[in-house]
Input
Amino acid sequence: MDSLEINKIVACILVVALVVIGLSNLTEILYEVEKPEVAHYIIEGVDDEPATIDTAVSEEVEEIPIQILLASASVDKGAKVFKKCSNCHVPNEGGANKIGPGLWNIVNKDIGSKDDYKYSSAMAAFEGDWTFEQLNSYLINPKKYIQGTKMSFVGLKKAKDRANVILYLRSFSDNPAPIE
Output
């Protein structure tokens, strides 16, 4: 193949490319379409406001006292749910701190009081004991319950899961806290 034939082939490719580009521009000019201000269909009789979830039902479920939930909770099920926590916590006596503190004998212990763990200032300043109620409320959404905590866990939304985990943690003690 000589250079003249190569030039002809390249010229043909360029002409085809120019024709395709020219036709696409020509069709845009000939068939100009107005774009809508709002990019969706409006359905008659439907409100534009987002739907709200009725939280009255879920609030009623959350108001079940933790002691009632603990009465039907299971340590075995708590161990399964605790696997979500085990990347950051160990419940065993003498267990080393991980990302979070060890949880041996945590029920009824002072909040943020483990000497060999550096808590966030929010957790260290939070006063009280890890009662069943405190643990239950905290485990729903730790970041919301104690704003500024380092704990990044999203929480346990199911009351039954929280009760199972709390009962499981209660079992890690020489003298488990009584369920009153």
The chain has eight helices and no strands. Residues 75 and 168 are 5 Å apart (CA to CA). The radius of gyration is 32 Å. Confidence is low (pLDDT under 50) at residues 55-62.
